[in-house]
C-alpha cells in the first residue's frame, strides 16, 4: 500500500506538472462550455430572412405579407418586382425560404379559383429551413382559414357556422419535452458530455504509453509488477478526481445559462460516474496496447471524433447500418447521452435509464478487464526481459526526439 500511495502521489504530480494535460483537461471544458453556451444562448432561431415576391400587389397580398412580417421567427424581405435571379437573392440574403404570391392572387380568391401560393424552402441549412417552414405554415394556414371564413360570412353564413364549415373538426397539437423548442437545452448539455469524454480520452492516451515510451515504467513500477489492476487505478484515479471538478463547473454553468438540471440527481451522479469510469478504462486499454503516446492519442481521437454523430442523440440509431450501430454501442458516450436525454429533456422516470446504465456498466467492466489482461501481459513481458525493454524504450525515446 505504501508503494501504491507513493505512485499515486507521483501520478498527481505528473498530471499537474504537465502543461498540455492541464490545458486540455481544465481549460478546454470551461472554454467550450462557455463558447457553446453563448452560441446556443438564444435557444431559438429568430428573424430568419424570408423573401416574399409579391407579383399581385393588391390589398389581399399586402395583408398576407403583413401577417408574415408579424411572425417574430422570420424577417420578411419584400420584392414588388421579381429579381433577375431568385437563387442569387436567396444566397445573398442567406434566406431560409422564398414565398411567391402569384399575379391575380386576390382576383382568383374572390372568384373561387383557388390560386397556388409557391413556397420554396432553402434546405442548404436544415435547421433554419425547419424553423422557417414551421413559421410559414402557421402564418399562411391562418391567413387561408381567415379568407375562407370571411368568404362564407359574405355569403350570409354566421361566423360560428362558417368556422365549422371550414374546419369540421379541431386538432390540438401539444408538444412534449422541451416544449419551447429551446436549442440551448437540447444541444448544449450534450456537447458538454462530448467534451468531457474527449478530454478524458486525451489524458488517458498518454497515461501508460508515455511511461513505456520514456522508459520510466520499469524503474517506477518494479515493486508493482504483480499488481496490474492497482497499477491501472493509479493512472485513472487522478482523472476521476479531476472529473468531479469539471462536472462541478458544468453545474455552475447550468445556473449561469439557466439550463435546467436533470431529473433524479442521484441517478445522474451514478450515471456520470460510470460514464467517466468506462471512458477512462477505454483510454487505458488503448494506451497499453499502443506503446506510443502520439499514436495512442491519434487512435483515441479517431474513436472520439464521430462519437456524437453516431450516438443517436440527433439522428436515430436504428436508421444507421448495423456496423455503425455496433461502433456506436462500444463508445461510452452513446448510452450516456440516451440516458441523459431521458433525465434532462424528457424528464422521464429514473427506471427508464436503467438499460443504459447497465450498458455503461458493461462497457466499464469489459474495458477494465481487457485493460487488466493487456497490462498483465505487458508487465510480464517487460519485467521478464527488463534489459530488452529498456533498450526498446531508449530507441523509442530517440525516435521521438
Q: In words, what does this structure look like?
A:
The structure is a single chain. With 401 residues, this protein is mainly alpha-helical. Helices cover 67% and strands 5% of the residues. It contains 17 helices and four strands. The protein has helices spanning 2-17, 19-39, 59-70, 86-93, 105-110, 126-154, 159-166, 183-205, 207-214, 217-220, 228-256, 265-289, 293-304, 322-329, 333-344, 354-384, 386-400; strands at residues 48-54, 74-79, 97-101, 118-121. It has a four-stranded mixed beta sheet, with helices on both faces.
Short description:
The chain is mainly α.
N-to-C series of helices and strands? HHEHEHEHEHHHHHHHHHHHH
C-alpha Rg (nearest Å): 30 Å
User: Which stretches are poorly predicted, pLDDT < 50 over at least 5 residues?
Assistant: 391-401
Q: Spatial order of the strands in the main sheet?
A: 2-1-3-4
Number of strands: 4
| Tally of alpha and pi helices | 17
Distance between the termini: 36 Å
| 3D shape | elongated
Amino acid at each position: 500500500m505504501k508503494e501504491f500511495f507513493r505512485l499515486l502521489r507521483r501520478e498527481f504530480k505528473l498530471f499537474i506538472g504537465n502543461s498540455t494535460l492541464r490545458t486540455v483537461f481544465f481549460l478546454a471544458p470551461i472554454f467550450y462550455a462557455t463558447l457553446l453556451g453563448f452560441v446556443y444562448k438564444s435557444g431559438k432561431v429568430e428573424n430568419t430572412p424570408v423573401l416574399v415576391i409579391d407579383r399581385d400587389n393588391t390589398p389581399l397580398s399586402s395583408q398576407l405579407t403583413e401577417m408574415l412580417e408579424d411572425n417574430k421567427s422570420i424577417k420578411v424581405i419584400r420584392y414588388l418586382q421579381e429579381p433577375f435571379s431568385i437563387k442569387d437573392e436567396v444566397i445573398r440574403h442567406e434566406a431560409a425560404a422564398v414565398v411567391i404570391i402569384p399575379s391575380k392572387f386576390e382576383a382568383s380568391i374572390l372568384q373561387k379559383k383557388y390560386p397556388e401560393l409557391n413556397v420554396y424552402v432553402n434546405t442548404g441549412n436544415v435547421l433554419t429551413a425547419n424553423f422557417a417552414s414551421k413559421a410559414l405554415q402557421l402564418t399562411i394556414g391562418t391567413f387561408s382559414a381567415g379568407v375562407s371564413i370571411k368568404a362564407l360570412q359574405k355569403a350570409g353564413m354566421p361566423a360560428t357556422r362558417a368556422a365549422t364549415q371550414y374546419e369540421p373538426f379541431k386538432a390540438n397539437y401539444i408538444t412534449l419535452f422541451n416544449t419551447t423548442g429551446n436549442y440551448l437545452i437540447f444541444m448544449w448539455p450534450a456537447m458538454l458530455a462530448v467534451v468531457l469524454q474527449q478530454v478524458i480520452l486525451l489524458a488517458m492516451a498518454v497515461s501508460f504509453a508515455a511511461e513505456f515510451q520514456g522508459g520510466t515504467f520499469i524503474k517506477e513500477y518494479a515493486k508493482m509488477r504483480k499488481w496490474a489492476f492497482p497499477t491501472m487505478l493509479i493512472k485513472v484515479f487522478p482523472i476521476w478526481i479531476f472529473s468531479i471538478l469539471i462536472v462541478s463547473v458544468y453545474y455552475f454553468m447550468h445556473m449561469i445559462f439557466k439550463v435546467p438540471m436533470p431529473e433524479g440527481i442521484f441517478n445522474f451522479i451514478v450515471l456520470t460516474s460510470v460514464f467517466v469510469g468506462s471512458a477512462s478504462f477505454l483510454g487505458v486499454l488503448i494506451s497499453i496496447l499502443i506503446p506510443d503516446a502520439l499514436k495512442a492519442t491519434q487512435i483515441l481521437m479517431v474513436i472520439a471524433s464521430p462519437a456524437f454523430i453516431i450516438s443517436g442523440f440527433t439522428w436515430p440509431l436504428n436508421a444507421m447500418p448495423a456496423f455503425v450501430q455496433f461502433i456506436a454501442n462500444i463508445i461510452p458516450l452513446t448510452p450516456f447521452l440516451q440516458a441523459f436525454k431521458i433525465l434532462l429533456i424528457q424528464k422521464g422516470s429514473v427506471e427508464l435509464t436503467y438499460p443504459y446504465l447497465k450498458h455503461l456498466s458493461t462497457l466499464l467492466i469489459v474495458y477494465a478487464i481487457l485493460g487488466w489482461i493487456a497490462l498483465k501481459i505487458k508487465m510480464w513481458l517487460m519485467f521478464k526481459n527488463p534489459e530488452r525493454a529498456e533498450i526498446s524504450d531508449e530507441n523509442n525515446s530517440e525516435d521521438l526526439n
